[in-house]
Amino acid sequence: MALEFLKKFFGSGGSKNIAKERLQIVLIHDRADISPEMLEQLRRDMIDVITRYMDIDTSKIEMDFDRADRSVAFVANIPVIRIKRGVAPGKMEQEIPDGGKKAQPKRKPGQPG
Amino acid sequence: MDPRVIVITSGKGGVGKTTTTSNISVALARAGHKVVAVDADIGLRNLDVVMGLENRVVYNFIDVLEGTCRLNQALVRDKRVDNLFLLPAAQTRTKDAVSADQMEELCGMLRKEFDFILLDSPAGIESGFRNASIGADEALVITTPEVPAVRDADRIIGLLESMGKSPIRLVINRLRSRLVKQGEMLDVRDVLDILAIDLVGIVPEDDSVVKSANRGEPLTFGDSAPAAQAFQRIASRILGETVPFPDFSEEQGRGFFAGIRKFFGRKE
Asked: Model ipTM?
């Protein structure tokens, strides 16, 4: 009641705030030009990749576009449950044979494989 | 001074491109510059009637491009002020009648004759808009403080940026100070936050715009109407002058006590 009074009195909280919020949201999608289907596919791909390295809570993943000036950032918040102990290089090689071999010489000597 | 080619565009239709083109053209001519207002909306010609020159149109710019007439035969001189000309669009043709190259060629011809070439773009983001913009150096984007108009303006700004136009400046048209004061309309700050480009003018909602279009007399031939003064200020800013932005909420808005009265009045 009191809030309503103040809102009416000072002329804030009118439909313009709704307009601004709706515009900001719609423009993020306009500018990023990405469909909900694509966003869902991206989510699945990200989960695939990340779960190779750690266990995550897939039910609590937050993904959205964030805007600043005329650019858009894609921000993902992914709760980690457990980091897997040292991803086996053998597994990497199996999956990406060339990439795995090339990556090996880069590893510093003495670093646990 | 190098000639300046400015496209006036908006994305959404009906937000005031033609009104802005006509009024700024008149204001620039009255300031002593040689100006041509080009109607780039082929098939939906309107600038001639808004400027009150429809009875004197003989040829159009497609006739010039096709060699049917010379440029100076197609230009309609406005007798009310020195140095103001209209170059009409073809009414019985479609947008496919010209190519982007031809529009650049036309702008090249006009650059030799004029200080300012103002192109009134059609609505939309298709070939009509692209052809109107291709030969321009700079752009004025017109919007109203409404969701669809601002959204379309954002899209147009992106396209103009990718075409390398600079500067791209914003005109906020039909601002209703009473609604802004009540929090029921996006204010100037909101629109600038969202679009993030430079502002070149704020035009208040003004009944005299409708009346002037009825008569075919652009408002900037006079100096009294609030919208006329706003368009005058935009012309001055285009000419590089620093002109402060008036606070329209002060001009027409209600004061503190009027606010109290209105609030209790509504409750009773």
From this structure: 0.81
